[in-house]
Amino acid sequence: MNATDRGNTVRMACIQTCAGLDVSANLDRISDLIAQAAHAGAEFVATPEMSNVIDPDRARLSSKVGEQHEDHAVRRFAGLARQHDIDLLAGSLALKTADGRLVNRSILFGRNGAIVARYDKIHMFDVDLPGGESYRESRNYRPGKNLVVAAAARTLIGLSICYDVRFPGLYRALAQAGATILTVPAAFTVPTGEAHWEVLLRARAIETGCFVIAPAQAGTHESGRKTYGHSMIVAPWGEILAEAGVETGIVVADADMNDVIEARRRIPALQHDRDFKEPGDRLRAAS
């Protein structure tokens, strides 16, 4: 399918990789996969959370990344978007801020390599899991505050990252702001991935009448972390259009934007919000 044949259809691709401790090596692997996706005709390509590096050591991580305007990975992604003439989402990158803190940031690049939008992950994954796994993202990363919808791939795209997927109000707001594609780049743990990954992604698609594209990290990383994989593209009615397994690679699917219109026509839930009182208000009213 070439550009003149696409009409209202966007060919999308998820990149699935297993990031290690070496930024340059990670970017080399991702570059090869992006080239494969572009060769398959994808015009919108998305990479996973922490595409540049997965390193739990904060001091070591900080030494490997820069601020957005100077970071090597940002420049590399901009060049890949230009080279392949694609809209490209760096699902997320660990980056520094001017005050030296870190952010977990999605950056959307246009076909000319310019930055179209950026989104800092809002919800921090602070949790102790069965089996001894423990995560404290808020120790390392400054949370974002802003909802982001941006124009790319001839439509509007709503940005999110990984743990955000458990907060449906964010996605409802993105859809009501005009998004037709929701991005969920992730590095899901294996236990939570097996239990919840698919159902959460399908639920976010069904609730909003949006396409969901969720590129994921997969496998055992150099740091010892294990991620679930199963990158996925989901249609507005909840059908899984494409799904990876646990190996690195790409998945590609065609997203017909007319499906968004039809899903929202059949279930116009985005138009049916009503005010309601919190339980505390009812209790106070009754007392």
Which helices and strands occur, and which strands form pairs?
Blueprint: H1 3-6, E1 9-16, H2 23-39, E2 44-46, H3 58-64, H4 72-84, E3 87-96, E4 102-109, E5 115-120, E6 126-128, E7 134-136, H5 137-140, E8 149-152, E9 155-159, H6 168-176, E10 181-183, H7 190-208, E11 211-214, E12 218-220, E13 226-228, E14 232-234, E15 240-243, E16 249-256, H8 258-266, H9 279-286
Parallel strand pairs: 1-2, 2-3, 9-10, 10-11
Antiparallel strand pairs: 1-16, 3-4, 4-5, 6-7, 8-9, 11-14, 12-13, 14-15
Helix pairs in contact: 2-4
What name does the CATH topology carry? Nitrilase/N-carbamoyl-D-aminoacid amidohydrolase
Q: Strand portion, in percent? A: 25-35%
CATH architecture label: 4-Layer Sandwich
Distance between the termini: 65 Å
> What would the principal axes of the Cα set say about the shape?
globular
Number of strands: 16
The Rg value, from CA coordinates, equals 19 Å
The CATH class is Alpha Beta
The number of domains is 1
Helical/strand content category: alpha/beta
Report the sheet with the most strands, covering strand number, pairing sense and barrel closure.
Answer: 6 strands, mixed
Ranges with pLDDT <50 over ≥5 residues? none
What is the CATH superfamily classification?
Carbon-nitrogen hydrolase
Give the topology string: H per helix, E per strand: HEHEHHEEEEEHEEHEHEEEEEEHH
The largest sheet has its strands arranged as: 5-4-3-2-1-16
The proportion of residues forming helix, as a percent range, comes to 25-40%
- Residue-averaged pLDDT, rounded? 93
Number of helices: 9
